[in-house]
């Protein structure tokens, strides 16, 4: 009887995994067919181009004041600040 229960459990788990992978495959195909990831990349790029700030990414609080030293922000400096702010946010979890 134990073998039968194990067999049923294994079959049930296999069916669940198969269904999960089928849903994942459907989702992946949908994203590819409708080019959702390309759209998100474009929208993110457009947002950062028109409103380049850490606030736009949600990495600063509304009352936080960003220091402006009078120099332009380089890509490297921006990336360092994004990484620093992201690290601060994730350290809370």
UniProtKB/TrEMBL annotation:
CDD domains: DD_EFCAB10. This is Pseudouridylate synthase 7 homolog isoform X4. Transmembrane segments: none annotated. It comes from Tursiops truncatus. PANTHER family: EF-HAND CALCIUM-BINDING DOMAIN-CONTAINING PROTEIN 10 (PTHR21847:SF1). Residues 29-87 form the EFCAB10 C-terminal EF-hand domain. The gene is PUS7. Signal peptide: none annotated.
